[in-house]
């Protein structure tokens, strides 16, 4: 065996609905018209929430906000493939996925208003709140995917992170441990080409991010992340595998069309041309044309749907504002431990009396 | 039925009991299953509970981080970090998630995880096998920090830690693992947050934990003073009341720890005493601690570690001053 | 020639000067080159020094760890960690290597690295963007920890940090980045380890750093007491002498910090004062600090952070007691 | 592009001198007889030092010691491929490599005696001391490899770590950052099949460790780590690449024939059979037969060489013992900072006076 090729790996890329509106008939998932419309609606809902949120932030009503604009297909397509009991473990830009999994929009706004109420997940909802430290949450998803397996349940955890996150040791540890423990976990990496200002070539020498899976000995696959049908298809297959103890990494190729967060100014580090180019490749537009071509979406349905979203979000904003008015700052003392410690109680009393340090 | 056990055996028997008592307890960590842990603290557990005792990859951030997820599914993770310094590899998971998941989700997701980890000097181990970072962990709100000082105490405190609804960093002094046996009751739980008055006395209060407690007791005997010796046991939350009551009585106090002095817990304890017993103090509070240097390799370790002699000198100063 | 600069500009101009002065200085970190840093603290530097200013992958352990190697080849790494909480991701590299490489190699390999990192609350940032772990870093022997409180101080201290032969964690209070301008001399170096007496007074000593200094000054004015206000500037090594001298004069002291109280540096400072000025103390030392809770999200942040009002109350207590 | 294979990776394994003493003539490096003998001698030196060290530890003269027995070819072969000015960045089991790079054996003993003197590297020696925290030191090697490049020098850093270390996030970060910065760094992973008691299948689901390189987009190659000629060949090529800014990961397949450290008892977790099997595959034996077959090594040379090593190591032990007698504990105060801080000076004075706490 002097010189021998001992292992070979292939990274495959999948697309179901192309930019030219061609469809891979073999791969196209069999979804009812209602399901197809639901996918569309969820993307629109997220887009609209983002637009309103950016405006609210500009008016000082929200804190730093990270829009998902342009990434809706990657998130909604994958979230849609999840089943009851499955867990979503997001990063900080996953409102599309969270909305699709049932998080009410006012909670997303509360989170952006700096309120823990927005990170409060009533038990059994199968969701984790946003995770700010980049790349840390995939480990939680591995713990969940393993924990479900240990308890003989078939629920999976689907976790989201970005291209930049793949440089963090934690993400690698998560992939690797998932492989060792056959964790019921799916990793969705949204490669939106930027980590704040940093492009992929300054993040890694790897040609694809799907190949990060090779190091962990798990499956990796790439999908056109602006193709909601492709994402759904790939995610559904991955989730099925994960349910059977085979973790999968999905790299969804997409583009962050908006700013990193409302604190960011992309014009400092990228050309407007590029943004224009990607505007044309918008995932919602691509899917809308598909639905229209097939007569699933007409003008009437569209405007009904837009109106519904508009009023839902308006309601959510009202609810968020109301909730924001009467938060109790003393809660910080109540939720640090199950029971307040004596020292905390002392500090709490001082806080209430506003006398002690 | 009480048994004569060493500390490392007390750890093992406690884990065995808890694995048996509660199906949700999961033990994992580097070399804890097949080999039973590098100190043999988990020896045999995998034989009795093969479905809940696991070897882990060499990935401390992973070990800590997955605990957050395990807990979310309803389990009670009890990982081992092979040596306390390697918990630094997972410090971000600890501070960013383990300690905060309850507060940021308003109690809807919690992390009742107990991270066991051997710590401290005195066994001539390799570099970075002898650190004591209890002050750093105690500075992270949301965590509890516990250090036992004997086999029976280990049983009582580890039992409480595993059952606690909050995350606990449970630091086990390697030096005491095999140094002595004592009677350990089969069922024994010591509430977290309660200090132990080990010895009563009137002239000076001496506070020490982990392997320093024995040094302190020896020092006190050497000095021949009437000393009240207190083992806080739980460093966070600290039982201030017991300490303050004692100092109100004695008016003098020596705090001992292995960790470097600066920003160590002796400072915190001094501050609490200062705040609550200032007018009872007859002399400056004394600190007998590790020096502000990286714990040296073991040829110089004995010179670094506080011992009964240095503690005795501290007690003398506390008694003589003022 | 002195210029009117904001703190963030003072950082930038200092880095520019040091890059120009010393070919060994290398600036790197997430988004520091092309975008000039998320706070624009490194804006334009890559244009002038394209060979020594680099964007880094999102990998804080890597950013800290490669600094050890860069330094070994003779360079002076000046990385930025985007927010202080994310230095936790590299805490093991910091504690296990950066802080120890000198002592373990008997000075034959050293790490003259300055890790700049924005810290602290007050700008309504996201979760984990507002922590203050100066106590934890100060508990690691071998590191120096520096916090400036104004643009001119930033210039003087950062210059000294970059030139220092030892590793420095340089924590920049985000709240002060753009809050005011002041005259900043072009050449200015403030020796590390020297506190600044910001205001002289006789009745009480008030110690505060970072953005808390301004709150303290406001509090003191509100109270109308004759207060000596001290900014330690370097938290490790701490200038005990200046603090102790002041407390010997005033007999009363308030220590302020944003970090949680337990195991925070107010405890350490209390202990040092207790040790060296005990017999001068007329009242218990007061701590005005963050609470022992995870820094809440920003809707509750103002309730968490000490402000002039809480500090004033502390000063009153210090003055009234005893 | 509906379904497309977009990236392909092959892991190659190399062996030059087989267990059956066959040689791949095309790959065999052109080394002089003296060089070949030097390779042999370095392996023997390390083996003998380990044997003596274990005995010394048993007698209480040393602390915990991690023998490299069985791994000498992997270490010596790679170290031998380094040039003047290159850096070695070891883990804690690299005495074979360190000795081959010129570290005097008494220093290795000092280190095992718990003395910083053993970790003292006189400037310009191009070596880092042992690194105890698993997987941390590859990052230092990346910093060195990048730092040398930034300063226009061609020196490379060669760093060593084990199979277990590949699970640490730091090792992944090191590989990835090396790829981004074209660091002049070679990563030598000694896959000795165990991380203390833990076997590879509990460490990762990856079939090979060489494929960890794929995630970083750098080159990965496997070599028979018990074949000193193969290791030398692969390392030489990798070092040349690294010198030109192409980092390489080498997985050297070997076996830890002895205990993890002197604190370890392998019989707890592995069968004696396995150890016996690997005794027969000992790297020194394989190379010795090769040298003997080719008439490069005869009994006389062998016994000369054994004697030389024996007396060298005896001398090193004497020197180590002497040095151990008069260490100054106060050094701990002197080397914490460049200048002692006031508080440290206070503590130092107390220490000297032995009065204060
Ligand atoms: C551990 C950590 N390091 C740095 C940051 C600051 N930060 C926030 S987002 C971000 C970039 C993340 O990029 P990517 O993973 O591609 O996600 P995206 O923002 O594109 O969704 C950085 C560096 C952080 N939040 N956490
Ligand atoms: C960060 C860290 N975690 C755990 C340990 C304890 N430990 C020492 S060696 C070792 C196993 C290392 O295995 P491997 O990388 O395969 O190297 P080998 O011992 O086989 O040479 C472990 C877990 C450590 N020293 N550092
Ligand atoms: Mg991105
Ligand atoms: Mg190994």
Structure, described:
The complex is a heterotetramer, with 2 copies of chain A (357 residues) and 2 copies of chain B (322 residues). Chain A has 357 residues and is of the alpha/beta class. Chain A has 2 domains: 13-266 and 277-326, Rossmann fold; 332-357, no CATH class. In chain A, 45% of the residues lie in helices and 12% in strands. Chain A contains 13 helices and 8 strands. Chain A has a 6-stranded parallel beta sheet, with helices on both faces. Chain A has a two-stranded antiparallel ribbon with strand order 5-6. In chain A, a hairpin with a 2-residue loop joins β5 (194-195) and β6. In chain A, α1 packs across α11, α2 packs across α8 (228-243) and α5 (137-150) packs parallel to α6. Chain A is globular, with a radius of gyration of 21 Å. The model of chain A has no long low-confidence stretch (mean pLDDT 96). In chain B, α8 (212-223) links the parallel β10 and β11 (227-231). Chain B has 2 domains: 3-184, Thiamin diphosphate (ThDP)-binding fold, Pyr/PP domains (Rossmann fold, 3-Layer(aba) Sandwich); 196-319, 3-Layer(aba) Sandwich (Rossmann fold). Chain B has helices spanning 7-21, 45-48, 60-72, 91-98, 101-104, 134-138, 151-163, 212-223, 240-250, 265-277, 301-304, 308-320; strands at residues 3-6, 25-29, 53-55, 76-80, 114-119, 144-146, 168-173, 181-184, 196-199, 204-207, 227-231, 234-236, 253-260, 286-290. The mean pLDDT of chain B is 97. In chain B, strands 9-11-10-13-14 form a 5-stranded mixed beta sheet, sandwiched between helices. In chain B, strands 5-7-6-12 form a 4-stranded mixed beta sheet. Chain B starts with a strand and ends with a helix. Chain B is of the alpha/beta class and 322 residues long. Chains in contact: A-B, A-C, A-D, B-C, B-D, C-D. At the B-C interface, α4, α6 and α10 of B face α4, α6 and α10 of C. Residues 162-164, 192, 194-195 of chain D line the site of one magnesium ion.
């Amino acid at each position: 065996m002097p010189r021998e090729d001992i292992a070979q790996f292939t990274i495959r890329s999948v697309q179901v609905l192309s930019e030219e509106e061609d469809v891979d008939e073999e791969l196209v998932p069999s979804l009812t018209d209602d399901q197809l419309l639901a996918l569309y609606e969820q993307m629109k809902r997220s887009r609209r929430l983002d637009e309103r949120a950016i405006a609210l932030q500009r008016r000082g009503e929200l804190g730093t906000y990270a829009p998902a604009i342009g990434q809706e297909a990657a998130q909604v397509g994958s979230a849609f493939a999840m089943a009851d009991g499955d867990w979503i473990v997001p990063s900080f830009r996953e409102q599309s996925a969270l909305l699709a999994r049932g998080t009410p929009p006012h909670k997303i706004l509360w989170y952006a208003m700096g309120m823990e109420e927005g990170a409060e997940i009533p038990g059994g909802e199968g969701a984790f709140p946003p995770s700010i430290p980049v790349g840390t949450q995939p480990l939680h998803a591995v713990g969940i995917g393993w924990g479900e397996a240990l308890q003989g349940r078939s629920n999976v955890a689907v976790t989201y992170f970005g291209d930049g996150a793949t440089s963090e040791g934690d993400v690698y540890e998560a992939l690797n441990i998932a492989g060792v423990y056959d964790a019921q976990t799916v990793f969705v990496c949204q490669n939106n080409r930027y980590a704040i200002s940093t492009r992929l070539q300054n993040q890694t020498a790897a040609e694809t991010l799907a190949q990060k899976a090779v190091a962990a000995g798990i499956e990796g696959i790439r999908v056109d992340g602006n193709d909601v049908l492709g994402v759904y298809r790939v995610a559904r297959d991955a989730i099925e595998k994960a349910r059977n103890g085979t973790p999968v990494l999905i790299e969804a190729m997409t583009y962050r069309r908006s700013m990193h967060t409302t604190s960011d100014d992309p014009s400092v580090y990228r050309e407007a041309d590029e943004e224009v180019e990607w505007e044309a490749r918008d995932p919602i537009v691509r899917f809308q044309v598909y639905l229209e071509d097939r007569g699933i979406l007409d003008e009437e349905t569209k405007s009904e749907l837009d109106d519904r979203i508009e009023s839902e979000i308006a309601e959510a904003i009202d609810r968020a504002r109301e909730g924001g008015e009467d938060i109790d700052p003393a809660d910080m003392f109540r939720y640090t431990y199950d029971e307040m410690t004596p020292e905390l109680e002392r500090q709490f009393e001082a806080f209430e009396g506003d006398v002690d340090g | 039925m009480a048994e004569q056990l060493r500390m490392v055996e007390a750890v093992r028997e406690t884990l065995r009991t808890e694995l048996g008592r509660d199906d949700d307890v999961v033990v994992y960590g580097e070399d804890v299953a097949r080999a039973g842990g590098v100190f043999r603290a988990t020896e045999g557990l995998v034989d009795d509970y093969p479905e809940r005792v696991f070897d882990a990859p060499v990935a401390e951030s992973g070990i800590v981080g997955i605990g957050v997820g395990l807990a979310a599914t309803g389990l009670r993770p009890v990982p081992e970090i092979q040596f306390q310094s390697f918990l630094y590899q997972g410090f971000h998971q600890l501070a960013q998630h383990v300690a905060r998941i309850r507060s940021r989700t308003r109690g809807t997701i919690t992390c009742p995880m107990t991270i066991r980890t051997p710590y401290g000097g005195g066994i001539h181990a390799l570099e970075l096998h002898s650190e004591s970072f209890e002050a750093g962990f105690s500075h992270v709100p949301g965590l509890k920090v516990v250090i036992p000082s004997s086999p029976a105490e280990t049983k009582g405190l580890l039992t409480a830690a595993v059952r606690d609804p909050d995350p606990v960093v449970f630091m086990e002094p390697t030096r005491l693992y095999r140094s002595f046996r004592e009677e350990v009751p089969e069922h024994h739980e010591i509430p977290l947050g309660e200090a132990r008055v080990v010895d009563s006395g009137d002239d000076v209060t001496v506070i020490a934990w982990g392997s320093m407690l024995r040094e302190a007791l020896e020092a006190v005997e050497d000095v021949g003073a009437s000393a009240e010796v207190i083992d806080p046991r739980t460093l966070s939350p600290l039982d201030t009341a017991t300490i303050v009551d004692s100092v109100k009585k004695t008016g003098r106090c020596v705090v001992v720890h292995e960790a470097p002095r600066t920003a160590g817990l002796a400072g915190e304890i001094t501050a609490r005493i200062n705040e609550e017993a200032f007018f009872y103090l007859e002399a400056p509070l004394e600190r007998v601690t590790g020096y502000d240097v990286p714990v040296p390799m073991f040829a110089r370790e004995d010179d670094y570690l506080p011992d009964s002699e240095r503690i005795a000198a501290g007690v003398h100063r506390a008694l003589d001053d003022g």
